[in-house]
Task: inverse folding
């Protein structure tokens, strides 16, 4: 009987000791897990904050133009001085267009001056010739008969003093008109250089556009729908 009591007591003590160790191990493991979670939470990386440019494409374009840059925002835009362009054009025809880097306008400029110069030269040469014809036919000197050169072209009966005077006056008028046209064309080239330089940085981006589109419009008359054209202006 004593042996049984001793054996039961020993087994009870053994079970109690095993249960106590398991409890300590579980508690320790829980603490380790908690510490690990705390360590991970303490070293958790900060969330990435992605910043975006709140400026729209249109605002970026306007800001770039204001700073003298192109739409990419990097390349410098050539900004000619209107006063310099005007003075260069006054000094030499076409020099204002060269300063503005509008080289394609040079054939127009010099072609216009060549045309007016040819008109002045041709009309003045024939004016001087008909002036001599008229002077010879109007005087009383029988030895001055230069007007007879016209007999090979015209009927001698139409070669009269009045006809020659009319031809002389017309040629002189055309010559003077060519001179006036040359001066006006010269002023136009100077004005073109000045205006071109003033509008060099004018905003002609796609945001300034005009669009035409077909549409249908309802009318109050008989409640009908008629075709129309819609005009959209963006700026």
Result:
């Amino acid at each position: 009987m004593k042996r049984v009591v001793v054996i039961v007591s020993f087994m009870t003590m053994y079970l109690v000791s095993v249960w106590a160790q398991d409890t300590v191990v579980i508690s320790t493991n829980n603490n380790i897990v908690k510490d690990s979670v705390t360590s991970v939470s303490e070293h958790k990386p900060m969330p990435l904050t992605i910043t975006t440019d709140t400026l729209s494409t249109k605002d970026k374009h306007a800001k770039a133009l204001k700073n003298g840059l192109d739409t990419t925002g990097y390349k410098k835009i050539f900004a000619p001085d209107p006063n310099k362009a005007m003075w260069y054009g006054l000094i030499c025809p076409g020099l204002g267009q060269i300063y503005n880097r509008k080289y394609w306008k040079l054939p127009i400029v010099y072609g216009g001056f060549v045309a007016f110069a040819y008109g002045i030269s041709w009309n003045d040469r024939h004016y001087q010739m008909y002036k001599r014809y008229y002077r010879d036919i109007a005087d009383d000197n029988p030895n001055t008969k230069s007007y007879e050169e016209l007999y090979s072209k015209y009927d001698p009966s139409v070669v009269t003093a009045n006809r020659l005077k009319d031809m002389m006056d017309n040629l002189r008028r055309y010559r003077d008109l060519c001179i006036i046209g040359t001066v006006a064309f010269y002023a136009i080239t100077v004005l073109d250089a000045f205006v071109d330089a003033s509008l060099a940085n004018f905003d002609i981006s796609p945001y300034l556009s005009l669009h035409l589109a077909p549409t249908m419009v309802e009318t109050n008359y008989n409640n009908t729908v008629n075709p129309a054209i819609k005009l959209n202006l963006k700026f």
User: Anything to note?
Assistant: The beta strands are 209-218, 225-234.
